[in-house]
Amino acid sequence: MATEVVTMPQLGESVTEGTINEWLKQVGDTVEKYESLLEVATDKVNAEVPAPIGGKIARILVDPGATVPIGTPICEIEVEGEPANDDAASDVPAAGASEDSPPAKASEVAPTVPSSSAAGSLERGRFSPAVRRLAQERGIDPTQITGTGAGGRVTRNDILQAATPATAPAPVSEPTAKPVPSTSEAARVAMDAVPAVIEDGDRVESLSSVRKVIAERMVRSKQTVPHAWLMVEVDVSGLVALRERMKDEFKSREGISLTYLPFMMRAVVEGLRAVPVMNAQWNGDSVVLKKRINIGMAAATDRGLIVPVVKDADQKNVVGLAKATQDLVQRARSGRLSMEDLSGGTFTVDNTGAVGTVLTYPVINAPEVGIVTMESIVKRPVVVGDMIAVRSMVNVCLSFDHRVVDGADAGKFLRVVKKNLESIGPETSLYA
């Protein structure tokens, strides 16, 4: 049997690391090629990672909960072929591997008596980079902790439990100040806020890997992106009348419900066409004006908030957008999205009105430069000409990156969205 090393795969553009959420196969299990091997959480979503080859799981090198860079060895699979050199592979890392590469589990390595210098290296290797970093920040010696992980390995939870509330993080020297926090720094800030006061009767629930990623991403966005905000009121009485007239026929003909979201997306497409700088991404010392219009749509699931992407939204009519959005929402809630479904977004739309809100301040999905919300449609009296009339009104809210977009362009974008929505009437075609 030959042994093949499986590494953390690239799970989307701009993704540099992943957190192993759960191993779906264990040591000794047989796995087919392309069968789900493990579940990984990134800063975009949870995804099941298929096995690149078929065989038997020989070793798992990274415990659940550990965060490792793309390309890090995470497990070994025995496959049919030439016999593996067990003596060379069991304890010696591959040439060029850094000392931070995740080691084999202690329970799966034959006992040896290392020299004193080798013992120090082995001691370092017992702990994942995330555990060593957290131990250093909390001022804790991980060698003094009894691990609860597989093979007796020390986990992040072990470090956190060993740290009392009074323990202050050990100072970490920073050779150079960085204007933009790294992923690990953003994660530390997200997790190390002012501690809660826990009293008798309170219930403490550990964060899921998805919630940790959401926390990190939101902190990083608010720390690095100068958010600005605008809102307009839109009279959508004509849109409401159209949907009321068409919803039953549409359901019968297309097999899906007719919601307000595809109309909002069409209006946003027109706004992005009129103001191309809104369809852009921040790139450090440059701005990338995107050719394609790919609309991300925030979707709430029982596993957390994710943002699947409707590709080439400008090439779809209302019916096409309705089908695309419903398909993405259904697959998001059943956990069947691919990384392709979650990448490539150039602007984000959030239908916050579905939960009853009338005014929100959304957080930008960086590196995009804008996100818009459609709030609840409510009937209220408004002035029409010189008379007061009851109209169906909705607030449309926009957060934008002020490094890229000025207020004038943001205002123009919202005016185009407003004009498009208000132009819809009972006879508007859904297929145009």
Automatic annotation (TrEMBL):
Positions of the Peripheral subunit-binding (PSBD) domain: 126-163
EC number per UniProt: 2.3.1.-
Entry GO CC: cytoplasm
UniProt cofactor(s): (R)-lipoate
Family: Belongs to the 2-oxoacid dehydrogenase family.
PROSITE patterns for this protein: BIOTINYL_LIPOYL (PS50968), LIPOYL (PS00189), PSBD (PS51826)
Top-level taxon in the UniProt lineage: Bacteria
Classification via PANTHER family: DIHYDROLIPOAMIDE ACETYLTRANSFERASE COMPONENT OF PYRUVATE DEHYDROGENASE COMPLEX (PTHR43178), LIPOAMIDE ACYLTRANSFERASE COMPONENT OF BRANCHED-CHAIN ALPHA-KETO ACID DEHYDROGENASE COMPLEX, MITOCHONDRIAL (PTHR43178:SF5)
Protein name according to UniProt: Dihydrolipoamide acetyltransferase component of pyruvate dehydrogenase complex
Gene3D superfamilies: 2.40.50.100, Chloramphenicol acetyltransferase-like domain, E3-binding domain
Annotated region described as Disordered, given as residue ranges: 83-154
Domain named Lipoyl-binding: residues: 3-78
Keywords of the record: Acyltransferase, Lipoyl, Transferase
GO molecular function: acetyltransferase activity; lipoic acid binding
Species for this entry: Sulfobacillus acidophilus
